Amino acid sequence: MIEQVSAKVMLGGEAAAFSRGGNRLCFVDPRDSGRCIKVLRPDRSPAIKRGESGFPKNLKPLSSFDDNREEAGVYAAIQRSVGEAAFSMIPRLHGWVETEFGAGLCQDLVRDDDGLIAVTLKQYLWQRGRDAALERVLAEFGAAWSAAGMPSRKLLSHNLVVQCAGGNPLRLWVIDGLGWPDLLPLASYCRGLARRKARRRITALEDTIREQLDKRDTPEDFGYHGWLEEEQRAR
């Protein structure tokens, strides 16, 4: 159950965000450094997104263009279908909070044991490659994700973070891209189907990792999503 938080929290403006995604900003919760608050980017509001959509998608209600509302609904579905086992793979939600950006979604923030915000799998691969320690964590994550039948879209390397202890990978967490994308999500009602689809997501993740490592060895740059500078990690 996601608790409702009524107290208003001031986040300090866009520059204070430690991460900027395609539609949201992510801030360290000033009340608790072990949590973060996701808010909608002002330049990617539901109204703007709907206005950019073509027919018939532009007929949908504004709420369907709100990434926070969508994520909260997906979490509620995961709580019903998977239960507590899910929260060893995804950060736990702690409800809504009012901010200067409007309604924010409060969530556990994944940090390493040195207190720094954990880097994405994409950044880890770029900096350290696929080492033996990461191999073990990937195998454990893949087995747990498949067994639970966790619902997600394609598992993108910038939507997973690598939590480290003593400088070595400890666990993988999925921080975005949750929920079945199907128009009729039959896997939500059939655990066997959910597990098969989750296994396919893990297989596809292997391809994504290989592509990322191949890209690292070319003159291409890292890209827009998934990189945290040390100053951002220390917030």
Strand order of the largest sheet: 1-5-6-4-3-2
Strand content: 15-25%
- The helix tally amounts to 6
Major sheet summary line: 6 strands, mixed
Point out poorly predicted stretches. none
Mean pLDDT level: 93
SS-based structural class?
A: alpha+beta
Shape: globular
Report the count of strand segments. Answer: 9
Order of helices and strands: EEEEHHEEEHHEEHH
What does this entry look like structurally?
With 235 residues, the protein is α+β, with helices and mostly antiparallel strands. The protein has 2 domains: 4-108, Phosphorylase Kinase, domain 1 (2-Layer Sandwich); 119-233. It has helices at residues 46-52, 67-81, 121-128, 132-148, 191-216, 230-233, and strands at 4-9, 19-20, 24-28, 35-40, 93-99, 102-108, 119-120, 160-165, 168-174. The radius of gyration is 18 Å and the shape is globular. The protein starts with a strand and ends with a helix. The mean pLDDT is 93.
